[in-house]
Amino acid sequence: MSELLSPPPAAAGNQYGAEHAAAKKAVALAARLCKKVQQDLLKLDVQTKADRTPVTVADYGSQVLVSVVLKMELPSNPFSMVAEEDSEDLRKDGAQEMLGHITKLVNETIINDGSYSITLSKEDVLVAIDCGKSEGGPSGRHWILDPIDGTKGFIRGDQYAIGLALLDEGKVVLGAMACPNLPFKSIDHNGVSSGDQVGALFSATIGCGSTVESLEGSQPQKINVCSISNPVDASFFESYERKHCMRDCTSSIAEKLGIQAPPVRIDSQAKYGAVAQGDGAIYWRFPHKRSKEAVWDHAAGSIIVTEAGGLVKDASGNDLDFSKGRYLDRDAGIIATNKYLMPLVVKAAQEAMKEEGILG
Questions:
Q1: CA 280, CA 355: separation in Å to the nearest integer?
Q2: What is the largest CA-CA distance in the chain?
Q3: What is the pTM (predicted TM-score) of this model?
Q4: What is the distance of C-alpha 292 from the center of its chain?
Q5: Is 149 marked as binding a ligand?
Q6: What is the CB-side half-sphere exposure of residue 335 using CA atoms within 13 A?
Q7: Given CA atoms 68, 40, 45, 102 in this order, what sign does their dihedral have?
Q8: Out of 96-100, 175-179, 200-204, 237-241, which region has the weakest mean confidence (pLDDT)?
């Protein structure tokens, strides 16, 4: 469900045009580093892959590159970023080898890209990581970053995403999301592509719609959520990891809706991208506990879906509120779908959660 854009949405008339372009560049560059680390990781044996060091290196490196690109591309803007990582562990005794590895990878990525003539020191890397310590909130502008969303998928060689969004006066106004392993073409119920090209870059700006393009470079294509109105015809995405999804509850929701298709289970915010481009009708997330949901896990994906014509709500049908700081203030569960299915999914979710004893 896409169409070629001419001209791209970052053209004149978009008040966030510079930020939109910078965000796309930032996540694309971070994706290059992450792809290299994942490729190296997959060459290792099974025992070594149980070591989380590679994904930790990629996590930090991704955050450094996003911070650097945003500062280079938007030098006059006050900089505030809400991100997952900080430098505390890297400043401890015994972390110098990892810090050196991160610094080397970051500098190699910058040099290979060729956009900037800079070389970062270890201290520069630590400072760049700590740019993500902001608490966010309802006032001013704050970038929201998940440097690697879907770490288990990253380790397995499956789906992960680099998600970046901009919060302006408490509202998410743009998002960019790099999904290095997500097919650029649509995916089927087994999570595989109808085409050969892999690596998608989704982006959206408020009032300008959502697009997808190849991470390797292509003209942006405008995307839209599906128009399915009968849940019998719908398919749904949910988390690959069991701990992120109450499968008894979601099975009950699917049964109440009459959904016939089996669930498509993949990691990360890539599910938001898949819904935004109409690969499936619904994405829902019902974690086992009423644990805190970090803003960086949903900010980029949510605006990409909403600008593609969809809706993103909590399980009570309320909009997600990203203005409360580093965590969402929401009822149990998050749902992304189109305007036709949302009221039906919320109703079924409420009934299923009551039966499961999740709601009173």
A1: 26
A2: 60
A3: 0.91
A4: 17
A5: yes
A6: 29
A7: negative
A8: 237-241
The domain made up of 231-356 is a member of CATH 3.40.50.720: no
On whether the CB atoms of residues 299 and 227 are closer than 8 A, the answer is no
Domain limits of the chain? Answer: 231-356
Q: Rounded to whole angstroms, how far apart are CA atoms 186 and 195?
A: 8
146 marked ligand binding residue: yes
pLDDT, tens digit (0-9, with 9 covering 90-100), for 102-118: 999 999 999 999 999 99
Place of tokens 């290095």: 180
Q: Which residues contact 144 (CB under 8 A, 6 or more apart)?
A: 81, 82, 83, 136, 164, 165, 166, 167, 172, 295, 296, 299, 300, 322
Smallest Cα–Cα separation from 305: which of 326, 325, 282? 282
Distance CA 26, CA 41 (A): 23
In angstroms, rounded to a whole number, what is the distance separating the alpha carbons of residues 350 and 356? 10
329 is annotated as contributing to ligand binding: no
Q: Mutual orientation of helices 122-129 and 53-73 as an angle, nearest 10°? A: 80
Which residues are identified as catalytic? 59, 151
- Six token digits for residue 13: 């008339």
Q: Specify the residue for token string 């909403």.
A: 306
For the cut 70, the answer to whether the pLDDT of residue 8 exceeds it is no
